Each structure stands twice: as structure tokens, then as C-alpha cells.
Amino acid sequence: MYSGEDYYSDATTTEAEISASVRLRDVTWLKRAFVAAVASLSISSKWRVHSEAARPTVEDYANEILDSLTFTPDVPAVDYIELAAVTTAALQTVTITGLRSNAGAFTVNFGDNYTASYPAGYTGFVARTYTAAGVYKIRVNAPRASITHLVCTDAKLVIPIGAVASLSGLQVLQIDGMNYAFVAANELSGKYSLSYLYIRNAPNVAHLSALQSLPALSTVRITNGLTAAQVSDVLYMLWGQSNIKTSNGGSVNVGGTNAVCGGTYNSACPPTNGLQYRYQLLLDTCGTFINSSRRWSEVIVN
Length: 302
Fold this sequence. Notes:
302 residues, 2 domains, five-stranded antiparallel sheet
């Protein structure tokens, strides 16, 4: 602080330190804050002077710092889901086959300066016909946790990596015939309300994990070119889910384009191969389900 001498000897606070501590909302407000605050700070060595007459004002110093800052206004945290559409010709229609939010009315911005509104409780499809070929960002303006149904069967639709992971309240997920659906292995983690899972002919959806921690599952169809080991792993995870399963019956289908399930179909406790897992899912001779009504009604394999 100024001691009556012709220079400021306690110059320990740098402009960089001050700049790093500032979150800017309003430039005018910040100026006023600096005028009040800088007076109590030590002055940077660049402002050392040799006489009181040459001493810069507090506002000079505040303005110097303000001029060096990059201002980033505070904005609310984003809470929407983004997909995309890829069209190769004019007048192609891109459809989200099923979309539902439990948070009331919502809007969808289709990326071509058109926004559509949907009422509370809407359970239908969402579609847009684009006038020209291109890539369009689609923004569903609804809280991500409110999205309960996402059904995508249009090959022109893009699901970016991480989109499914952000939908914590998801109850129904269907991805069918989509080359542009990108879903990482762990994106179902925490989907405790997910009851319907359908993945077919979507080569960029990874072999999904965490099925053993999803108690609401009642329909599982994954026919996505799985290897024999991956088929066995799906059945293993569902057997691991048996002691928390909350639905009665239900259907599993890991046949179709998947490899033949390996192993021997017989009772073993614990099971160790694909067909033994299937046996337990249907008959539960190991007694892992809460009660017999929770056993799966059908388990289809190749």
C-alpha cells in the first residue's frame, strides 16, 4: 500500500491474478466493482511511479484490466437434446418415429429456421421435409431428464455419441436401421426406468453394458450382428439383473443377425455359458429371481 513515499513498494498482486478471479456478467457493473476493489489492492509493478503527481487513478487501473479481458456473459446451463438430419436430395423427410417428454409442451428446432411446437402429453412422431440436401442440426427443447421415449428408425437421422447417455429418464429406446446412430457401450448406465430396449441393424451402436443394473427391463431385442461371446454376455447381464428385476415375464430376443449362442442348455448353478444363462432366465433353478413370476417368458437365440 502507499506509504507516503514516491513509489508503491507492496506490488504483489498481478493483473493476471486479478483477471483470473473475475467472472464477468456486465461490463458496467464490473467497472464499478473494480473501482471499489482495486483501491484496496497492491498496485502492479507496471504502475510504479516516482511522484505522487504522476500516480494513476484507480479507474485508470480498472480500465487497463478491463481492456485486457475477454468477456463471456453467464448463460443458463443447456438442457436439451441435439440430433441431426442428413439429406441427399431436395424434399426428403426426416422423422423421429417416437418422441415423448413428461415435462409438458416442448418445441423442436429443425435446423432450417423452422421450429414446431408440440403439446403436453404428445406421443407421436416428429418430422420435417427439407427443401435442400444438407446436414441439419435438430434441437429438441425439452429437459433431457424428461424424455421418456426415443424411437428412431430413419436412416437419415443422426444420434450423436452421448445423446442417449444424457436421457436419464428414458423408458423406451428403439434404434432400428440406422448407420448414423452412435451409442457408446456405457450409455445405458443409470437408466433405471428403461423397460423397452430394441437395437437392430445399427452398426455404430456398441455392444451395450450395464444391463444387469436396469431393474425395469421387460423387453430386450438386440439383433445387431453380435458375436457368440456378445450374445452370451447379454444373457449373462440379464441373469445378473434377475434379483432386482421388477417386471413380470417379458421377452428377450438375441437371435436374428447375431451369431449362434454357445454352450449347453441345462441347469447349472451358477451358469457359465450362453445356453445355461438362457436356461436360468426361463426356469430359474438357481433361485435368483425374487419370485417365479419375474422369470422371463421367452428368450430367443440362434
